[in-house]
Design brief:
Organism (chain B): Puia dinghuensis
Distance between the termini of chain A: 60 Å
Strand content of chain A: under 5%
Structural class of chain C: mainly alpha
Radius of gyration of chain C: 21 Å
Strand content of chain C: under 5%
CATH architecture of chain A: Orthogonal Bundle
Family (chain B): Belongs to the complex I subunit 4 family.
Helix content of chain A: over 70%
Order of helices and strands of chain C: HHEEHHHHHHHHHHHHHHHHH
Largest sheet of chain A: none
Number of strands of chain A: 0
InterPro entries (chain B): NADH_Q_OxRdtase_chainM/4, NADH_UbQ_OxRdtase, ND/Mrp_TM
Number of helices of chain A: 3
Oligomer: heterotetramer
Strand order of the largest sheet of chain C: 1-2
Helix content of chain C: over 70%
Number of strands of chain C: 2
Distance between the termini of chain C: 21 Å
Number of helices of chain C: 19
Shape of chain C: globular
Order of helices and strands of chain A: HHH
Transmembrane segments (chain B): 6-23, 30-51, 107-125, 137-155, 161-179, 191-212, 239-261, 273-296, 302-324, 331-351, 357-379, 400-423, 435-454, 486-503
Keywords (chain B): Membrane, Transmembrane, Transmembrane helix
Structural class of chain A: mainly alpha
Largest interface: B-D, 58 and 53 residues
Largest sheet of chain C: 2 strands, antiparallel
Chains: A mainly alpha (103), B mainly alpha (523), C mainly alpha (481), D mainly alpha (636)
Number of domains of chain C: 1
Number of domains of chain A: 1
Radius of gyration of chain A: 17 Å
């Protein structure tokens, strides 16, 4: 297999990660926030893969699988909550979720 | 073992009070009285034994293989010389940290212990009628406070000392919080926060000492007598001493750390005020005598002038504020600030005569101020006020109380015949040779104390009675003190006069300790 | 995997089995009570298992897990907490007219996750444990969908937790990238002897971020109050005790493995975080009127204190840390127990005004809560005092003056709001609101009994800690070198 | 020699009985206990005197006995000892103490008898006698103490009693204020005395009087600053108690107390405690010429100032109060010039006639239903003959009427010493002389205005026998008491000085000019009397006074003198007002602000942080990010 330059991959991962982060910070819609978080997780996964290939170990890929699984679980719960929110507040805007705060 | 009994009795008594009260009201006070009296008997037995009896058989509490470090630390000297310790009890507690359950008693502790029980008894008596609701819990707190104080006077394991030091706070806090006066919450917070802040700093100091000693000797222990042997670098000594002083200065209290005192004293119920003024303040002084001076001779000699200055400031400042107060209990509270200033002055004079004076002052102040608070409480029961403006002319309606109040007022302005005079005289006399100026300033307090005491007497007992529009004349407002109050005040009166006419036994009891102490400070 | 290792893992397997058992019993339509009892039984089994395998320790289940004294200790604490929480949960959920059964699945899963954390010695196991914990927590927090903004709380926790785990993963990736190993010990080995590479440091930073988030340390504490308030009381106390215990355990193990204390940079971070947490937590709680939020803030501060014990990274530190956690858990359990008992169907008993004169209305609960608060404030006779004492000792032993001094000063501030609550308890009694007689007297009084037990335990630890400390020391010494 | 102990013990017993059981005893019983105890003490003292004379003190009078002073010692036991300090309850009686004891118990007994009638029907009859007894006890301790601490005990004790008795009728605030004033001003002096004690102890390491007197000549250089300081501090103590300039302001107000109190405490005994102290400690003063001079000057000034004020007072008791101050001034003058014997002699006579005057004044006031203003009296000569004649005797003695009055002998001696003693001088002498004139003048004025002229107020009651008998006894004594000591150029009778010489050295004198001095003194007295007679009796000339009253300057002077030279106002503005206002300002305790500030800071911190908990998820995310950036910056 062709040797990929680790740094580049890492760079890509970092870019992805930051993109996701900005997404989380900028979007108001809960769904999009969830998606951005997925992106971040995948970025991390990518980094793992890169690292694994750097050391010629399977661990990186293994970790990636775990990440996928976990992301799936997370999103499922997340979506359930989103539905609840939609039922109760009829909105997707996080800014409406501020019943809980200091007086 | 008997020492454990003394404390245990109070603790158990307290719990009993609480439990019995839940199903049979009215028993609590009797149980409280019983347990205090029982303690009183034990103590008086001890007193008889050690004062009149064969005299102190010294038990040497020092670790068997004596490490006499040939160091600049003088207190490593003569531990084998006639030790002042009368009783020593030790038992393991948390060996893994070198924490042992160790109680030792020397003359000083014995004196203060007897004071504790004496005032405790009067505190119980004086709240006999005053406390009508939740009596059980009240006496529980009262007895536990007493137990904590007794523990503080006996503990010779630093951890144990701190433990008791804190144990006496919470019940006291509750006493103020629950049975206090109108502004009780504020007062209770203030009291707790001030003392706790000081206490935590002391905890730091204790731990630091623990580790330093451990590093030196290899054995990590909180034992007082072991740590007494360790040598500190000057800087370390200074900081650690400041840690201890922080706690004790707050308790004493020293201006400007005194602000908790007026509020706490004036808001607390009578018993609370008596215990606060009579006993809690003493723990501060005791701490300095027992720990600060022996642990840090150099450091404390270095700080002595400043400490004495602080003492003098407290004396004058407290007196001036007392003069200005319009609230009877606040007035008395500020007099405590002034009187405890004398204690600080005397302690740091580091001189036998002055130190003897300090011991007397601790007791005398406990009695006289306690009595004044008791009287203030009786007045409050009758007139339902603490405001001087709403009193006056009480001598007509209650001459007996008036005369007794006069006695204690005179005592607290340092008239001869009363213990306070002996104390202040000895303190000033002892401190005079080195610190003439400070003493001269302090002596002005004699005039100031006359100012506030006479003002108090005039406003409360003399002059025309307050017009009924201000204080509605009730039936209770007219009656003179009853037999119970007679007992309380009478006992105090006898005590203070005895102390004034025949202080020698007390001084002899404290002698050993004090000489041991001043040994380190021979100039 | 030989059977010795299997033995060593037995408790955890039982724990896993517990949730499966619950699933099955739901499938067979068993009652809430049955599930409760079964769960209780399972937890007892776990304890039993731990007792049985105590000689098999320490065992390494390469490469993911290692079951040693530290793990056993923390797992024990976790199980203990869960036992109490399970009991609390029963009346809480039963009286909330929800369908409570699935709750236990999640509860036990979360517990498993936290337990796995305590024995993990590998990034993967760490990750699995952590996510097992978090994902079930998302659901647990939002479990009572319709009551006091549970969903909002759940959502907030989910978002932020996911965010933090993203950082965690990225950090792990970076470390892996640098060291070529995901085992804690391997990481230490994989490092170049001279100088620490930048990526590794960054990875460390990200890791700390995630840990800090889980432990709700400043500046990652913002979620805590809202989640504590929104979550059902039993879940809140679960977050406060169980999850944090697990995370702290893994932090401890990780630090010991990679000798974290050797990196001054990392240490400065920890110091800063702990100092910040103490200050922020105590100040935030200062005038808080909602007791759940107040406890949230106080927990921020308390984990700040805990870090002081973590800083030295020596045996004394670990010991102090564990004891502190123990005391803290006991205290919080009793406090939240009272809250649970006082909660009404409509909402949790959050507002302080509801506690006015509690001591006179219901002396037992009043006393329990008061003692709990005193213990949090670190007043002698209570476990909290000894915990604080040990922590201070650990700190001073290493001359960590800055955090120690801050600890002292902030705990004076802290004292203020604990006293505020206590004085509320002792206020003159208003006309007591008539409380509906308990639906399930047995569980109700069982809870009562447990609360009293906890109070007694707190006193016992505070006055005669000798046996406990001996045990802790013994267990902490059971480790692979 | 155990009777010694009983002398103070008896009044003490009386006090205890009255204090504990007084309110349940009948007035008769109270009177018997109160007066009886003191009378018994008086008898004991007489016995003691007898023994004393027997034991050859009089032999000393003839001059051939050894100067080693005759004295009785009695140790009642240890009081307390700490370190180097050791204090015992020790009594030591020598001729000096004996003189004082005699006056205290004897005059005290008479006054007690008087009071039994005078105070009859008072609500607090028992309390009165309790305090009186306590006073006698304390005063006896003061003069019998063999160490300074015990002396100080008595010293403060008498202060206490004076406070209690001035404020005896406590329901009027004025009385309480007067009492407080008296106590506090004397306390200032006491404090000085105490500091003196400390200093002395620092120097000599003992507070035993005999030891001090023995050691100090060896220990201190003549006129060394230390000894001067000590002497001045003692002097200050004396000033406070004996109402000398500048601490004299309390005595006139002290007249708020019942007349017997004024007679016993504020005329005969307590106010002379200062005299006793200085005489007792004369060795220290001898060592410090400066202190001596200061004492003399103080005395001279005081006697003038007070005498001038006495001239214009209208309240009968205030007149007597000022005259007391001035007479004690004479004693201080004598002490200052080293004529200790003369000072004590004057104290001796003064005790009789001033007590007499006060008691008589009390009788007058009583019978004119509490009228104090002399200008509303008058014409009592025939209505109260006994009071009049006794008062006449007293006044004559006060004015030092030559030869026939005791006052003459004592005062003449002082005048002469002031002029001729080694450290006396013309200035002092002239001052004393002027004082004599004024004294004579105001005594005449007092007598004439009160007893002559026509009646202005009707007499309500006549004094009973219990009141008149003490008056008569005292009157007799105040005429004859002087005969024990004659000017040596007239008669070689020196019983008194002989009696004292064993304790108090006679001053070195420059001989000559006795006769001149005596003549001048006599003339001074007669002049004063004459002027008084002119102004206040010869009816037409009474106009002079009124005409003076019109003159603004004269009026101003008169008011100035009337107000006691404005000392009260001065102190009020200098000390009292500032103190009060400062304390009022700081009533709320400035230091509280410190902690208020801390609390406020914490609250602010809480508010700021609490603002960050705004419930917005995105904000929280930003928070997390901030944290991360922060950490990374820390790392990199």
């Amino acid at each position: 297999m062709a040797v990929v330059n680790i740094d580049r991959v890492l760079f890509v991962a970092a870019v992805l990660f930051l993109l996701g982060l900005t997404g989380v910070l900028t979007r108001k819609n809960i769904l999009f926030m969830l998606i951005s978080i997925e992106i971040m997780l995948n970025a991390a996964g990518l980094a793992f893969v890169a690292a694994g290939s750097k050391w010629h170990q399977p661990d990186g890929q293994a970790m990636f699988l775990f990440i996928l699984a976990m992301a799936a679980a997370e999103v499922s719960v997340g979506l359930a909550l989103v539905m609840q929110i939609w039922h109760q507040h009829k909105t997707m805007d996080v800014e409406d979720l501020n019943k809980l705060k200091d007086e | 073992m008997i020492l454990v009994w003394i404390i245990g009795l109070l603790l158990c008594g307290g719990i009993l009070c609480w439990l019995t009260d839940t199903w049979k009201a009215g028993y609590a006070k009797w149980i409280a009285l019983a347990s205090v009296v029982a303690d009183g008997l034990i103590i008086s037995a001890l007193l008889v034994h050690f004062v009149t009896g064969t005299g102190p058989q010294a038990v040497s509490p020092y670790p068997a293989p004596q490490v006499t470090t040939p160091s600049a630390e003088p207190h490593a000297a003569s531990p084998h010389a006639a030790t002042p310790w009368l009783i020593d009890y030790r038992n393991t507690w948390i060996p893994s940290f070198g924490i042992s359950l160790r109680l030792s008693m020397d003359g000083l502790s014995l004196i203060l212990l007897s004071l504790t029980i004496f005032l405790g008894l009067l505190a119980v008596l004086s709240s006999w009628k005053e406390i009508s609701e939740r009596t059980g819990f009240f006496y529980f707190n009262l007895l536990w406070t007493l137990a904590g104080i007794a523990g503080v006077f006996l503990a010779t394991d630093l951890f144990l000392f701190y433990f008791f030091w804190e144990v006496m706070l919470v019940p006291m806090y509750l006493l103020i919080l629950i049975w206090g006066d109108s502004n009780r919450r504020y007062a209770a917070y203030k009291f707790f926060l001030f003392t706790q802040a000081g206490g935590l700093l002391m905890l730091l100091a204790i731990l630091a000492l623990y580790f330093i000693h451990g590093r030196q000797s290899g054995t990590y222990t909180f034992d007082y007598f072991a740590i007494l042997q360790s040598t500190l670098s000057p800087t370390a000594a200074r900081w650690i001493m400041l840690g201890f002083l922080a706690a004790f200065a707050v308790k004493l209290p020293v201006v400007p750390l005194h602000n908790w005192l007026p509020d706490a004293h004036s808001e607390a119920p009578t018993a609370g005020s008596i215990v606060l003024a009579g006993l809690l303040l003493k723990t501060g002084a005791y701490g300095i005598i027992r720990f600060v001076l022996p642990f840090f001779p150099q450091a404390s000699t270095a700080i002595a002038p400043w400490a004495m200055l602080a003492g003098v400031i407290s004396i004058v400042y407290g007196a001036l504020l007392a003069f200005a107060q319009t609230d009877l209990k606040r007035l008395i509270a500020y007099t405590s600030v002034s009187h405890m200033g004398f204690v600080l002055l005397g302690i740091f004079a580091m001189q036998e005569t002055a130190m003897q004076g300090v011991v007397i002052q601790l007791i005398a102040h406990g009695i006289s101020t306690g009595a004044l608070f008791a009287i203030a409480g009786m007045i409050k029961e009758r007139l339902h006020t603490r405001e001087l403006a709403r009193m006056g002319g009480l001598q007509t309606s209650m001459p007996a109380m008036g005369n007794l109040a006069m006695v204690f007022a005179m005592a607290s302005l340092g008239l001869p015949l009363f213990g306070n005079f002996i104390a202040e005289f000895l303190i000033l006399l002892g401190a005079f040779p080195q610190y003439a100026t400070l003493v001269v300033i302090a002596s002005t307090a004699l005039v100031f104390s006359a100012l506030y005491c006479l003002r108090m007497m005039m406003r409360v007992f003399f002059g025309p009675a307050a017009p009924p529009t201000i204080t509605p004349p009730t039936a209770s407002a007219q009656q003179d003190i009853d037999s119970r109050e007679w007992i309380i005040l009478g006992l105090l009166c006898v005590g203070i006069v005895l102390l004034g006419l025949y202080p020698q036994p007390v001084m002899d009891l404290a002698k050993e300790t004090i000489q041991q102490l001043t040994l380190n400070f021979r100039i | 995997m030989n059977e010795l290792q299997f033995q060593a893992l037995l408790p955890f397997i039982v724990l896993a089995a517990a949730s499966i058992l619950v699933i099955l019993s739901i499938a067979f339509g068993r009652s809430h009570t049955f599930i409760q009892v079964a769960g209780f039984g399972m937890m007892c089994l776990v304890v039993l298992a731990m007792w049985l395998v105590r000689d098999a320790l320490p065992r390494e289940i390469a490469p993911l897990l290692v079951v040693d004294g530290l793990g056993a200790l923390f797992t024990g604490l976790i199980i203990f907490s869960v036992l109490v929480i399970g009991l609390l949960s029963f009346i809480y959920f039963e009286e909330r007219e929800e369908n409570p059964k699935e709750y236990y699945i999640l509860l036990f899963l979360a517990t498993l996750g936290s337990a796995v954390l305590t024995i993990s010695r590998h990034f993967i196991s760490l990750f699995i444990g952590l996510e097992l914990l978090s994902v079930s927590l998302y659901a647990l927090i939002a479990y009572l969908r319709t009551r006091n903004n549970a969903v909002e709380a759940g959502m907030k926790y989910l978002m932020l937790a996911a965010l933090s785990s993203a950082f965690l993963l990225f950090g792990m990736a970076l470390i892996y990238l640098e060291t070529g190993s995901m085992e804690f010990t391997g990481i230490a080995r994989g490092l170049p002897s001279s100088g620490t590479p930048i990526l590794f440091i960054m990875g460390m930073g990200f890791l700390l971020v995630a840990i800090g988030f889980k432990l709700a340390l400043a500046p990652f504490h913002l979620w805590a109050a809202d989640v504590y308030q929104g979550a059902p009381s039993p879940v809140t106390v679960f977050i406060a005790t169980v999850s944090k215990t697990g995370v702290f355990a893994v932090l401890l193990r990780f630090a010991q493995a990679v000798h974290l204390q050797q990196y001054p940079a990392a240490m400065t971070i920890v110091v800063v975080i702990s100092v910040a947490s103490m200050i922020v937590g105590n100040l935030l709680a200062l005038q808080q009127q909602n007791i759940k939020r107040l406890l949230a803030y106080s927990s921020i501060a308390h984990f700040g204190y805990l870090l002081v014990a973590f800083l030295p990274g020596d045996a004394a530190g670990a010991e102090a840390g564990f004891f502190y956690l123990l005391a803290y858990s006991i205290t919080l359990l009793s406090a939240f127990g009272v809250i649970t008992l006082l909660s009404t169907r409509q909402e949790d008993a959050g507002d302080l005004s509801g506690y006015r004169g509690l001591f006179w209305r219901d002396p037992v609960m009043g006393a329990v809560l008061a003692v709990a608060l005193l213990s949090l404030a670190g007043i002698p006779l209570t476990a909290g005092f000894l915990g604080k004492f040990l922590v201070l000792g650990a700190g001073i032993g290493r001359q960590l003056w800055v955090p120690v001094i801050v600890l002292v000063l902030t705990s004076v501030i802290g004292l203020y709001f604990y006293l505020r609550v206590i004085s509320t308890l002792f206020e003159k009694m208003p006309p007591a609101p008539a409380r509906a007689r308990p639906l399930h007297p047995f569980f109700y009084y069982a809870t009562y009994a447990v609360l009293i037990l906890l109070m007694g335990l707190s006193f016992w630890l505070g006055t005669f800690p000798r046996p406990a400390i001996r045990e802790i020391e013994a267990l902490l010494n059971i480790r692979l070198l | 020699m155990n009777e010694l102990a009983y002398i103070p013990a008896l009044p003490l017993l009386g006090f205890l009985v009255l204090a504990l059981g007084g309110r349940r005893m009948s007035q008769k019983a109270v009177a018997i206990t109160g007066a009886g105890s003191v009378c018994a003490a008086a008898l004991l003292t007489m016995v003691l005197c007898g023994q004393f004379f027997g034991s050859g003190a009089v032999g000393a009078a003839a001059g051939h006995a050894s100067p080693a002073s005759v004295h009785y010692d009695l140790q009642l036991g240890q009081w307390f000892h700490a370190g180097a300090l050791s204090i015992s309850f020790g009594l030591r009686v020598d001729s000096l103490s004996l003189v004082f004891m005699f006056i205290i118990t004897f005059v005290g007994a008479l006054i007690h008898l008087y009071s039994t009638a005078f105070m009859r029907g008072d609500r607090d009859y028992a309390r009165f006698f309790a305090c009186m007894n306590l006073f006698v006890c304390a005063m006896l301790i003061l003069v019998m103490a063999d160490n300074l601490v015990l002396l100080y005990l008595g010293w403060e004790g008498v202060g206490l009693c004076s406070y209690l008795l001035i404020g005896f009728w406590y329901d009027s605030p004025a009385n309480c204020l007067a009492a407080n004033k008296a106590f506090i001003i004397t306390r200032i002096g006491d404090t000085a005395l105490l500091i003196g004690l400390f200093l002395l102890f620092k120097e000599l390491a003992t507070l035993d009087i005999a030891a001090i007197l023995r050691q100090s000549p060896g220990h201190f250089r003549l006129g060394s600053p230390v000894i001067t300081l000590i002497a001045l501090l003692f002097l200050a103590g004396g000033m406070g108690k004996s109402a000398q300039l500048p601490l004299q302001t309390w005595l006139p107000d002290a007249m708020a107390g019942p007349s017997p109190v004024s007679a016993l405490i504020h005329a005969a005994t307590m106010v002379t405690a200062g005299v006793y102290l200085i005489a007792r400690m004369h060795v220290l003063f001898q060592l410090s010429p400066l202190a001596m001079t200061v004492t003399a000057i103080t005395g001279a000034l005081t006697l003038l100032v007070a005498a001038c004020s006495a001239m214009v007072q209208t309240d009968i008791k205030r007149i007597l109060a000022y005259s007391t101050i001035s007479q004690i001034g004479y004693m201080f003058l004598a002490l200052g010039v080293g004529a200790y014997g003369a000072a004590i002699f004057h104290f001796f006579t003064h005790a009789f006639f001033k007590a007499l005057l006060f008691l008589a004044a009390g009788a007058v006031i009583e019978s004119l239903h509490h009228e104090h203003n002399i200008f509303r009296m008058g014409g009592l000569k025939d209505k109260l003959p006994v009071v009049y004649w006794t008062f006449l005797a007293g006044a004559a003695s006060l004015a030092a009427l030559p030869l026939v009055s005791a006052g003459f002998y004592s005062k003449e001696q002082i005048l002469w010493y002031a002029w001729r003693a080694a450290n006396g001088g013309t200035a002092l002498w002239l001052a004393a002389l002027a004082g004599a004139v004024i004294t004579a003048f105001y005594s005449t004025r007092l007598l004439l205005v009160v007893f002559w002229g026509e009646a202005k107020t009707s007499v309500s009651s006549r004094p009973g026998r219990l009141i008149t008998i003490p008056l008569i006894i005292l009157a007799f004594l105040s005429l004859t008491a002087g005969f024990v000591e004659w000017p040596h150029n007239l008669l070689p009778v020196h019983l008194f000085s002989g009696f004292l010489q064993s304790v108090l050295p006679a001053p070195a004198t420059r001989s000559g000019g006795e006769t001149i001095g005596q003549l001048l003194a006599v003339m001074a007295t007669l002049a004063g009397i004459g002027v008084g007679y002119q102004l206040y009796h010869r009816q037409p000339e009474i106009g002079i006074i009124t005409r003076w009253q019109q003159r603004p300057l004269a009026a101003a002077i008169r008011n100035f003198l009337f107000g006691g030279w404005g000392f009260d106002r001065l102190y009020d503005t200098l000390f009292v007002r500032p103190l009060v206002s400062i304390t009022r300002l700081n009533r709320a305790d400035i230091f509280d602000q410190l902690y208020v500030a801390v609390v406020r800071a914490a609250r602010t911190g809480h508010r700021l942080l609490s603002a960050s908990q705004n419930g917005s998820l995105r904000w929280y995310a930003v928070g997390v990010l901030m944290g991360i950036l922060f950490i990374l910056t820390l790392l990199l």
